[in-house]
Structure to design on (136 residues):
C-alpha cells in the first residue's frame, strides 16, 4: 500500500523530519517506482536538508513524465536558484505561474526566500518577473 507510505512521508514533512520522510517516500517508490507524489515528497525532504542538486533530480524525473506538474516545476525552480542557476530557476517559476496563475503567491515566496533569490519593493515588478504583466 503506497498510500500509507505517502501519507507517513507527508506527516514527516509537516513535522520537519526529513530523514523520516525520505524513508517513507523511498518505501513508496519501492512499491510503485516512479510515483510522482513520492518523488516530489522525496525531493522536498532533500530540499529541507539543503541537498538541492539531488532534489532537482527528483523534480526533473517527475517533469519528464508529467510536464504539467506545477509543484515539481516550482520546487525545481527553487532548487535551481539555490544552486546559482537563477535565470533557469526563475524561468521554471514563470512557467508554473503562467500555466496556473493561482501559483503566483507560492512562486513569489520561493523566489524571495531562496538564498540567491530576489526581493522587490514593488509588487508589480515581481509580478512582471513571473510573467503576470504587472498584475499581482
Amino acid at each position: 500500500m503506497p498510500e500509507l507510505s505517502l501519507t507517513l512521508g507527508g506527516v514527516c514533512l509537516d513535522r520537519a523530519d526529513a530523514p523520516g520522510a525520505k524513508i517513507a517516500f523511498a518505501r513508496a517508490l519501492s512499491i510503485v517506482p516512479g510515483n510522482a507524489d513520492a518523488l516530489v515528497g522525496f525531493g522536498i525532504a532533500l530540499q529541507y536538508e539543503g541537498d538541492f542538486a539531488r532534489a532537482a533530480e527528483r523534480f526533473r524525473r517527475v517533469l519528464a513524465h508529467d510536464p504539467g506538474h506545477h509543484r515539481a516545476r516550482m520546487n525545481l525552480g527553487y532548487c535551481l536558484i539555490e544552486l546559482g542557476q537563477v535565470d533557469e530557476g526563475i524561468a521554471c517559476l514563470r512557467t508554473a505561474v503562467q500555466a496556473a496563475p493561482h501559483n503566483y503567491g507560492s512562486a513569489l515566496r520561493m523566489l524571495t526566500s531562496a538564498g540567491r533569490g530576489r526581493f522587490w519593493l514593488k509588487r508589480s515588478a515581481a509580478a512582471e518577473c513571473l510573467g503576470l504583466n504587472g498584475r499581482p
About this structure: The chain has a mean pLDDT of 91. The two ends are 42 Å apart (CA to CA).
